[in-house]
């Protein structure tokens, strides 16, 4: 995931250091050396996240943060305060100013990347939600129930805490008192299994339990359908970097180091809960607009009109941010044969099942539409073409490897799909991009069907 990060500090070597670190992880870095300059860069460049030094002459970090959060246009941009290690009071002041997270100096790589990524993921979802609502307005649906466009969905929810130490759990309970409903589990081999049974909004796991392998719990949580998208926050002991790296690689969303600072813990928990809220909202919104916009009774997917109208906004926003939008153009192979041999009603059932499988295999920010009879398009914001290719391959396999059970007495039907993949280029219109993807789809058909082909942009 690439993102544009603005680094603000009045000490040039500090800026250089963070810039070098972030650039090495493929973030795009903007810089500013004072509060007023930061505000100017923000209003001009719309960065995805701001790393803000607290101590600056003139306008300090708190004031900059307050101004970012007070302006409707910039309030949704996540702000990370960079504070001196020995200033816990800064954290309280930072929270009051509306900061989303903290880093302490000297900034450690692991903390930096974990926090930046976590907040960028949150912002991607928030942006998508807003774009979709803008599309709804463009299409003249005055009656679309508007989800809160305000930046702050409440950060509360149902939290599971997994730790063996009673003392720790008691302290956590006190810290999270008014954040949500708490459930405690004191470890055991079946923790992850038990966690599946309830809809948690956040799971906090200790990685230093004696009788339970916390990492294993996390890896199971990531593999179960029910808990795959639930944010995980882990607690580790200071200095146990190896364990932490493995946890982050596994897809754990954030971490806190023991002894846990109460304010910091609270901020982290709230960020994760808010992110979950947005993800849920996106899904809700997805289903709602689907019902409102769809003229396609068969699959329940977005129609062509919605797709192209939304894609226009998306391509513009990708251009502005210097990011890539990818599309998959998919067409069921020899679908006419299904109709001819099994009848139109069975054909419809295949289309329905096909649409459902697409839905299951894409992210909440992606958008699936029925483009024509048995042609479907998936649009994926902020997705480079090689990821898109990977997702297309996964979809192709999912279709080909699992015959469609549409209630025939001869058993399930073998279905395959051909897919063309294309990534947007600057100033392209939706129809140009779709045409490029369509050419790739044609090549996949020519190449024998049940294939994925990436558009050849040179030829
Ligand atoms: P190819 O592999 O080249 O894509 O072959 P194909 O048979 O899938 O392609 P073709 O374009 O020749 O046929 C598409 C068929 O899809 C023809 C049309 O009757 C059928 N179709 C289109 N919309 C619907 C629908 O809503 N329901 C059903 N049952 N069939 C549909
Ligand atoms: Mg076809």
Automatic annotation (TrEMBL):
Q: Which reaction does it catalyse?
A: 2 GTP = 3',3'-c-di-GMP + 2 diphosphate
Task: Report what the protein is called.
Answer: diguanylate cyclase
Q: Which NCBIfam families match?
A: GGDEF (TIGR00254), PRK09581.1 (NF007135)
Keyword annotations for this protein, in alphabetical order, are:
Phosphoprotein
Give yes or no: UniProt keyword Phosphoprotein: yes
Q: Which CDD domains match?
A: GGDEF, REC_D1_PleD-like
Domain GGDEF as annotated: residue spans? 323-457
A cellular component annotation (GO) from this entry: plasma membrane
Q: Name one Pfam family in it.
A: Response_reg
Q: Which GO terms describe its molecular function?
A: diguanylate cyclase activity
Task: Tell me which residues bear 4-aspartylphosphate.
Answer: 53
BP-aspect Gene Ontology terms: cell adhesion involved in single-species biofilm formation; negative regulation of bacterial-type flagellum-dependent cell motility; phosphorelay signal transduction system
> InterPro entries attached here?
CheY-like_superfamily, Diguanylate_Cyclase, GGDEF_dom, Nucleotide_cyclase, Rev_trsase/Diguanyl_cyclase, Sig_transdc_resp-reg_receiver
Q: Which organism is it from?
A: Eilatimonas milleporae
Q: Where is the Response regulatory domain?
A: 4-120, 158-273
Q: What is its EC number?
A: 2.7.7.65
SUPFAM superfamilies named in the record: CheY-like, Nucleotide cyclase
């Amino acid at each position: 995931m690439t993102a544009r990060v603005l680094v603000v500090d009045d000490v040039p070597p500090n800026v250089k250091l963070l810039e070098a670190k972030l650039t090495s992880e493929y973030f795009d870095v903007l810089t500013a050396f004072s509060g007023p300059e930061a505000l100017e860069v923000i209003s001009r460049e719309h960065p995805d996240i701001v790393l803000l030094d607290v101590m600056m002459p003139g306008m300090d970090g708190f004031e900059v943060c307050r101004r970012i959060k007070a302006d409707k246009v910039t309030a949704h941009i996540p702000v990370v305060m960079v504070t001196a290690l020995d200033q816990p009071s800064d954290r309280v002041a930072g929270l009051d100013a509306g900061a989303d997270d903290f880093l302490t100096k000297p900034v450690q790589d692991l903390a930096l990347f974990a926090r930046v990524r976590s907040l960028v993921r949150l912002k991607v979802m928030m942006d998508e939600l807003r774009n979709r609502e803008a599309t709804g307005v463009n299409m003249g649906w005055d009656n679309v129930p508007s989800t809160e466009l305000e930046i702050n969905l409440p950060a509360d929810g149902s939290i599971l805490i997994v730790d063996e130490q009673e003392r720790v759990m008691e302290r956590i309970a006190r810290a999270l008192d008014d954040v949500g409903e708490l459930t405690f589990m004191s470890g055991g081999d079946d923790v992850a299994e038990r966690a599946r049974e309830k809809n948690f909004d956040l799971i906090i796991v200790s990685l230093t339990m004696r009788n339970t392998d916390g990492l294993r719990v996390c890896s199971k949580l990531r593999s179960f359908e029910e808990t795959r998208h639930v944010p995980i926050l882990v607690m580790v002991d200071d200095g146990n970097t190896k364990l932490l790296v493995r946890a982050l690689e596994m897809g754990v969303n954030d971490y806190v180091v023991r002894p846990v600072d109460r304010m910091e813990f609270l901020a982290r928990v709230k960020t994760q809960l808010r992110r979950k809220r947005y993800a849920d909202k996106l899904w809700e919104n997805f289903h709602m607009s689907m019902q409102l916009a769809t003229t396609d009774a068969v699959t329940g997917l977005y129609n062509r009109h919605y797709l192209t109208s939304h894609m226009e906004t998306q391509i513009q926003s990708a251009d502005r941010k210097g990011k890539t939008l990818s599309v998959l153009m998919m067409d069921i192979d020899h679908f006419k044969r299904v109709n001819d041999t099994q009848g139109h009603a069975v054909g419809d059932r295949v289309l329905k099942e096909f649409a459902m499988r697409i839905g299951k295999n894409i992210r909440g920010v992606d958008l699936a539409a029925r483009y024509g009879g048995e042609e479907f398009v998936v649009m994926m914001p902020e997705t480079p073409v090689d990821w898109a290719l990977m997702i297309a391959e996964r979809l192709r396999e999912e279709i080909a490897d699992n015959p469609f059970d549409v209630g025939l007495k001869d058993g399930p039907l073998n279905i395959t799909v051909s897919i063309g993949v294309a990534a947007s280029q600057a100033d392209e219109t939706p129809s140009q991009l779709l045409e490029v993807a369509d050419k790739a789809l044609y090549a996949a058909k020519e190449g024998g069907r049940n294939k994925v082909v990436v558009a050849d942009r040179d030829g």
